[in-house]
Design brief:
By secondary structure, the protein is α/β, with parallel strands linked by helices. Helix content is 39%, strand content 25%. The strands form 2 sheets. The chain has a 6-stranded mixed β-sheet, sandwiched between helices. A 4-stranded antiparallel β-sheet has the order 2-1-4-5, covered by helices on one side. Helix 6 packs across helix 8 and helix 8 packs parallel to helix 9. It is globular and about 55 Å long. The two termini are 26 Å apart. The model has no long low-confidence stretch (mean pLDDT 91).
Length: 264
């Protein structure tokens, strides 16, 4: 098993009344698996992803349970150990690349960031890896894009840059958090196809987080449905879509427009 989460609870204490946003969540991810977490805003899916990525704030909240990755409990390990995994073995791509990319740094510099932190590669070797990653995410003229700034690229191109930065270190797990939400339908389809390609060629496990059940159905082997911090239902994609047990899941599936129904 690549990653195993046991009884994860996340509770915020920066309000008058403590608020639990994830309740007793258990999750396992196998090597090379594509698993989707779907749910409405506030369902706890992003908090779950941030816990895995080690990006939860250290103050104003309480965490319990464990997240085992390569014999390391990501929830309770020291910062030095966590930093050795972040951006190298576990990477994350967020919804809006313009808030993640530095507007005053060139694309190549940003794609190379984890290589500067986690490797002893020379400047020339980092350049080659960055250009290869940009080509792998199907950006045309990667050598040219390497020297460009974020504002010179379209939204879809910037999202591809973020994916390139996430895969340049050949991670074992890539977390994609609502990465297609701000894109039009055509670009969405291209990004989904790209993630499937990365999964197949690099055997990278992908945790795909979305509120769009139809999109999750196109890319994932297994689906987890969350609501109000709880796991409502979990199972293989075809089982969830064709034989959902819980009323909440059935309502989500019924809400998918007919033109977007998944072909299983």
């Amino acid at each position: 098993m690549l990653l195993e989460m046991k009884h994860l609870n996340i509770e915020f204490h920066n309000r008058t009344i403590p608020e639990t946003v994830v309740h007793d969540l258990n999750l396992a991810i196998k090597e090379g698996e594509m698993i989707g977490i779907v749910g409405e805003s506030g369902s706890g899916k992003t908090m779950t992803a941030l816990a895995i990525a080690g990006l939860l704030p250290r103050h104003g909240m309480q965490k319990s349970g464990e997240i085992q990755f390569q014999n390391t409990d990501l929830l309770h390990c020291d910062r030095k150990k966590l930093r050795s995994i972040q951006g190298k073995d576990i990477t994350m791509v967020f919804q809006e690349p313009m808030t993640s990319l530095n507007p005053v740094k060139k694309i190549g510099w940003q794609v190379e960031e984890c290589l500067r932190v986690h490797t002893d590669l020379t400047k020339s070797e980092r350049y080659q890896k960055a250009v290869t990653a940009l080509a792998d995410v199907e950006l045309k003229e990667p050598e040219k894009i390497y020297h460009m700034y974020p504002h010179q690229l379209s939204g879809g191109m910037r999202q591809r840059v973020m994916i390139a930065a996430a895969i340049v270190s050949n991670p074992q797990l890539l977390i994609a958090d609502e990465i297609t939400t701000a894109l039009d339908v055509t670009i969405q389809a291209q990004i989904v196809k790209l993630l499937k390609k990365i999964n197949k060629l690099q055997n990278t496990a992908i945790l795909f987080i979305s509120h769009d059940l139809s999109l999750v159905g196109r890319i994932c082997d297994r689906v987890i449905v969350m609501k109000d911090g709880y796991m409502v239902e979990e199972g293989p994609t075809d089982q969830i879509y064709l034989h959902a047990k819980e009323e909440y899941t059935k309502k989500l599936i019924a809400a998918i427009p007919k033109c977007e129904k998944i072909q299983l």
